[in-house]
Amino acid sequence: MKLYVDIGNSAIKWATEDDLQVDILHQAESSNLPAAIEHAWLKLKKPEAVYIASVRQQDIDAKLLSWIERHWQIIPLFAETRQLEHGVTNGYKKPGQLGVDRWLALIAARALSKLPQIVVDCGSATTIDAMDGEGRHIGGIILPGLRVFAHCLRQNTDIPHYETGEIGDCFATDTASGILTGAIVAQCATVEKLYQTLQAREMGDVICVVTGGDAELLARHLEVSHRVVHDLVLNGLRLQSGQSERTV
């Protein structure tokens, strides 16, 4: 058994090879590692290998590395951003600056389709990357995630804090809903703008793939054709680790 792990700013996600075949994804908060995963991981059969993609600071990675070595006596392998891999060419001037999660999402998206794509990852940050039909990463943008968007607004203004908000249409009738709706509308408008820009550039069909913890929430309000793939980064990690591509 191989174990694939995606450590984000707010969540850690993991899946085995068998899990990925049937779209099963496990997750916990990444703010308290390794305690957050210990109960679940102690129930796992000892893996023969562990592959990790992480955007956290090195001390967080070191704590998880120590836990894995102590309990399973194996050394995990960490994913890395590359210049060229699985038919995708990195578009950054300095390829290593592209987040490893974004890179893995791109190579997994390329395995799903050879059409031009907009790849959206909705987490603590929302990243939107464009890739042409030849697998060339054109570039992308980084936005505050939906929750960070709302938190920053509250932190930097005197707007009162309200616990819940609802999204109806674009015109909210209470403060909490206004903040949440503003975050959703802003992000959807950005995705839709980049989708249309790529469509005009490629002069043909474009696919939009959405992943991340807030993927379902954002996707419900997108007005362009899209597909939610929850395990996109983990499948990219599986590809980089040398496993065969999966047809989904």
From TrEMBL:
Binding site for substrate: 92, 99-102, 175
Residues bound to ATP: 6-13, 124
Localisation per UniProt entry: Cytoplasm
EC number: 2.7.1.33
SUPFAM superfamilies named among the record's database cross-references: Actin-like ATPase domain
Cofactor detail note: A monovalent cation. Ammonium or potassium.
Residues at the catalytic site: 101
GO biological process: coenzyme A biosynthetic process
GO molecular function: ATP binding; metal ion binding; pantothenate kinase activity
NCBIfam families: baf (TIGR00671)
Subunit record text: Homodimer.
Function: Catalyzes the phosphorylation of pantothenate (Pan), the first step in CoA biosynthesis.
Full protein name: Type III pantothenate kinase
